[in-house]
Design goal:
A hairpin with a 6-residue loop joins strand 2 and strand 3. The strands form 3 sheets. A 7-stranded mixed beta sheet has the order 1-2-3-4-5-6-7. It has a 5-stranded mixed beta sheet with strand order 8-9-10-11-12, with no helix packed on it. Strands 13-14 form a two-stranded antiparallel ribbon. It has a domain of 200 residues: 4-Layer Sandwich (Metallo-beta-lactamase, Chain A), CATH 3.60.15.10. By secondary structure, it is α/β, with parallel strands linked by helices. Helices cover 40% and strands 21% of the residues. It binds zinc ion (2 copies). The site of one zinc ion has 7 residues, from helix 2. The site of one zinc ion has 4 residues, from loops.
């Protein structure tokens, strides 16, 4: 298969029948790619972009350039519920009348996240167990306010489990459940043409952050999901951030390595006297993090701690409000 590129400003056809639309984001990632896939009749839209005017305008312009009407969109599928992917969903559902596909685990998470009080208490409790000061907890809470506001409840028409197929004008897309970055993250795979729409599961220059929740081995799930993708024949990865690229097995290998190194570093820090997630995060990043980024750093550390605990490398003392970690004897 020879993919071709038609540079067309904010959108281009990256594979026959698959258009990549670059939509602007108001934060450092810069751009989110959404994909428009030609169906036998009409189009499938994979992800919607963020709930901002700039994002909506860029999407509307791209569709106009492609002579695609809102009503020509016959199905909307979300790779996962992060605001840069699902932000415009309800607006687009109203405009297109299209049914929505979302994995059941991300739908459950969305119900949790949109219960603002419940979610705040949940997050504050996690930060407390991580040894984060009350002052920092308050800063994290306000830094998350905007993001929190951009989640809204959705009622999917189809709750995905993985394994579903969508017939397109050029073949079939298979839904592949790839939990880790979020519990219900999905990729879409065109096996015939070796094309993978990877969402945030595989991003060329970024190590996707792990969407950890207490009691969930999110890092373990992420690594297994990577192995699931490595087993597929993929000639072209179409990610949600950055340009299309090749070499998924090499990427998977490097990402395994990255997390193995991070695990080793965390064990060494614990051996060196760091006992809380906060102390570990401070030493791991060793620079000032904004409360927003600090929150993700803490959750990233927690994902690794839980992973290591489940593999009997670490132990947690959970008797007090703050959890203390030691290496297992
Ligand atoms: Zn994401
Ligand atoms: Zn993203």
């Amino acid at each position: 298969m020879t993919p071709y590129l038609e540079i067309g400003g904010d959108y281009r056809e990256v594979v026959p029948g698959i258009h990549m639309l670059e939509l602007p984001l108001p934060f450092s990632l810069g751009i989110v790619n959404v994909y428009l896939v030609r169906l036998e009749s009409g189009w499938l839209l994979i992800d919607t972009g963020m709930q901002t005017e700039a994002c909506f305008d860029a999407l509307a312009r791209a569709l106009e350039g492609l002579s695609v009407d809102w009503r020509d969109i016959r199905r909307i599928l979300l790779t996962h519920i992060h605001p840069d992917h699902m932000g415009l969903a309800s607006k687009l559902i109203a405009l297109t009348g299209a049914p929505l596909d979302l994995h059941r685990a991300d739908h459950e998470l969305l119900v949790h996240v949109t219960d603002t009080d419940l979610h705040r208490d949940w997050q504050q409790e996690i930060l407390t167990t991580a040894g984060v000061s009350a002052e920092m907890r308050a800063l994290v809470h306000s830094s998350m306010f905007d993001i929190q506001q951009s989640f809204e409840r959705l009622t999917p028409d189809r709750l995905l489990c993985g394994g579903e197929t969508i017939a397109t004008a050029h073949g079939v897309l298979e839904v592949i459940w790839t939990p880790g970055h979020s519990p219900g993250h999905v990729c879409l795979y065109d096996g015939e043409r070796g094309v993978l729409v990877s969402g945030d599961h595989i991003l060329q220059h970024i190590s996707p952050n792990i969407g950890w929740q207490p009691g969930r081995d999110a890092l373990g799930e992420f690594l297994s999901s990577l192995d699931r993708i490595a087993a597929l024949d993929v000639d072209l990865i179409l990610p949600s951030h950055g340009a299309p690229f090749t070499g998924h097995r090499e990427w998977v290998r490097k990402t395994h390595e990255h997390h193995a190194e991070r695990c080793a570093r965390i064990v060494a820090l614990i051996d060196g006297g760091a006992t809380t997630a906060h102390q570990i995060a401070e030493r791991l990043w060793n620079r000032h993090l904004s409360p927003f980024h600090y929150r993700f750093a803490i959750f990233e550390v927690m994902a690794h701690l839980e992973y290591l605990e489940r593999r009997q490398v670490l132990r947690a003392d959970r008797t007090g409000a703050v959890y203390h970690w030691t290496t297992a004897p």
